[in-house]
Every structure is written in C-alpha cells, then in structure tokens.
Amino acid sequence: MKSIRAFRGAIQLNVDASEEMRKCVAQLLKEMFDSNSIENEDLISMLFTATPDLTCEFPAVGARVFGITDVPLICASEIDVKGALPRTVRVLLHAESSLTRAEITHVYLNGAEILRPDLGNSAKNQGSK
C-alpha cells in the first residue's frame, strides 16, 4: 500500500550558471528517483531552496527540463547563515510510495553530503541509517 512520503535531497553546484543549475537539478532528481523507485505519476509536489549566492535560475527550471511538467513546484531562498555550504540547492519532494520511512534513501551529492551525513545516501550505503 502506498503512503505519502517526503524525500530529501541536496546538491552543490560548481558555479552559478544556468547550465550548471539544470544539470545538477536533473542529476539530483534522477538519483532520488532511482534510489527510491519513484515514478513521475507518484509525485505530489516539490519544494526547492537555493542558497542566496545562486541567482542564475530557479531550480524548478531544472525539474521542468528533467520532464516534470505537471507537478506543483516552488522555489525559495535558503536562510543566509554565516559559514553555510555555498551554491547549494535543496529539495523536499513529496510522493506516494510503498517504502517505509526507514527504507527511504535521502540523496546528497557533489559536496552536499556534509549537510546530513546521518541521513543521506552515503550513510545508508554504509548501513548506518
């Protein structure tokens, strides 16, 4: 039986450029979909945040380019915390899933792994979920 689940993800961009934003958002979503067996029809909504140093484009554009065209998406600016990881896009994805909360793989890529080492894909792969 499917339930509504929340999936977290984040990725650090190398540069503040539209092409990089689109590439990284697509990479993050592909990994989240693959790791959690998410199909487009399972999606409910996505909330993206971007650190204040990312001004090239909305992360949702990357999701649209990835093929997500009929799902509500919204973007917001991440709180500008001193010392925070720069050039980072975060996503909170809501979807219907048969996975339990303990089975979910939250995905952190390209340096964003340090944000939640206890929660991300590297922790699960090491069996320390």
TrEMBL record:
Gene3D superfamilies: RutC-like. One of its GO terms (biological process) is chorismate metabolic process. Pfam families: CM_1. GO terms for molecular function: chorismate mutase activity. PANTHER family: CHORISMATE MUTASE, CHORISMATE MUTASE AROH. NCBIfam families: CM_mono_aroH (TIGR01796). This is Unannotated protein.
